[in-house]
Design brief:
Strand order of the largest sheet: 11-10-9-12-8-1-6-7-13
Shape: globular
Strand content: 25-35%
Radius of gyration: 21 Å
Distance between the termini: 61 Å
Number of strands: 13
Largest sheet: 9 strands, mixed
Length: 269
Amino acid sequence: MSNGYHIVVCGSLVPDPLQTLEPVMAPDGPGLKNEAMLPSVLDPWAAHALYEAAHLAKRVPDSKVWLASLGPKPKLQQLMMAVAQKAPFEFVAIDGSASGFADSFETAQALAKAIQSIPGLDRDRMLLFGGCSSASRDAGTTLSMVGALLGVEDQFLAVDEIEPDADGGFRVKERVEGAQYLVSRCAGAPAVLAWATGNLPEPPNNPQIGMANMRGILPALAKAPSVGALRGGLRFESVETPSQRRETRVVKDAGVEEIARELAEWIRG
């Protein structure tokens, strides 16, 4: 193909899953206890999307990768110190809340506006990558709405593999019900691909890639527009940690139907 892809990956930070997360009500709305102090990582689904984007850009000549992230600037800067070493990309930063209590539509609007302002982005060659879900904004709708706001109609929402063709199109392997795959062929960009787990391992750190990326990351953070809390019309009366309940009973030689009936009665109760 004569022209490569312009791949925009949407992905931001989430609290490290090894930390204990305790929701609290703050004066400006719900949040996490000591949220500013919690260590952060790149959202796991977005990380898969970034690695797949870098791999695809390496395979297809004249391709380019951007990473668009929405989150508090200080935490984004801390996160990028590690992420920048994984894959080459240009950074697009938006200063705002990365909370799981943010409204997904307002988040999509902020991301779409930032993507529209990327210098040199050819939207006729654009592939919009991201996670099919999120460890914080688990609405499963954000990336699809970003694509809709950008006018992208071809959307694949549980992708595990993409195979480019010589004519500019590509084949997509997408998860469906029953542990099966739907294999589709797309004529070419633009398209939205929300990644499940993909097929690539986490790449090793490369200090040379990290230094090259940081030359663009720091200026991008300095001029990142602020979008606030992104709560929209959402109103939370209270937030709390789900209560834990465990009832264990050891029974020998119980039949499958008896176990299923007892579980159904317990759930109804």
